[in-house]
Amino acid sequence: MDRTIGMITGVLLVFFVWFGLVRASHQELWNDESYSLVSSIMGRSYGRMLVGDMGGVEGNNTPLFYVLQKLQCDVFSYHMPQAWVDGKWDREDIFSQVFLRVQPVLFIALSLSALFYYFAVRYSLTVGFYSVMVALSSFMLWAHWTEARPYALLFFLTTAQILLLLELLRGTPSGHKVWGWLALVHCLLALTTSVSALQIVACSVVLWSFSCRQWQRYLAMTVLPVSICLFYYFTFPNVSNFIFHFVDGPVALISANIPKDRFFIIFIFALFFWGRRWQAKDRNPIALEGKYIVFLGLMLLAYAAVLVRFKAMEPANGYQGFQVPARYFMSLTPAGIVATTLFSVWLVRASDPKFVRPAVVLGLIVFLTFRLHRTSEVFHWGLPL
Prior knowledge:
Shape: globular
Distance between the termini: 38 Å
Order of helices and strands: HHHHHHHHHHHHHEHHHEHH
Number of helices: 18
Helix content: 55-70%
Structural class: mainly alpha
Largest sheet: 2 strands, parallel
Strand order of the largest sheet: 1-2
Radius of gyration: 21 Å
């Protein structure tokens, strides 16, 4: 079975990379992609990037995405079209559309393949495919699958963080290796966005509460990456000059990452899971799903605080500066995908009496079909129709 799962994972990875590159070839680069290349990558040294010097033109000065993009351009001797150098960023260039999006395409393909592999190994092939379909029904995945910006990288690293967290919460025998991988992922997250400090702390709180209280483990996994986040946050130039305003409300921004139908599944799970424990006065260790919902709750509280902060900074005299976009909360998308998959499995298995189970499965299929339909209405599965 493990060999079959491995083969299917490889096929999915190749397919999603191919599909992403085809999709990239049909989409013109938008201004932010071209602007990042011209202003923050080409002509800027690796040293300046690593100390957070992006020229003051990016809303994020953490360097990982920009260093990787520059490295790719240098290795393959890529030269951007002269029209872009002259500021005509709307000029179409098919090769650039594909080449500059190789990394985000690969990161999304790796994320989808990792989700399938984890849930197929830990549960079943059916659950593995279900997790992929839940991911493919996600608005934010399609919005940033083929975008030469840091968001696909953030999606991938958050997916890796969550799957490693689940392994540690399971008490896997190879836990010491998983701790090392999680520390590495946290450092990469810190180099991707300073806001990742929120999910790093949330992950650490859950592990401290339910897994391990050896403080030495948290030096590399928490203290180091959070210090990196703080370094780039406090060295960000002209941070006070960035003004933000709301076009979409806070609920809409969160719902773009975790849709309301997924919140409904999360709510139903929480109601039955904690209700059963309270009714039975269960003092046994909390199951994996219960630990994960604590992590998800901490993530939501942290980003709610970010929204409050943005709201407090919003100018009183109308729309000024930059719009607060849903992509700033991109980490919630993989968190919601994993939650929906985990909690769906729990609801099916916990169905009692047994004849209720088909109704639960049917309800989950209806929710998934609805979300796939809504996403397809916006993106037409990513290709021009």
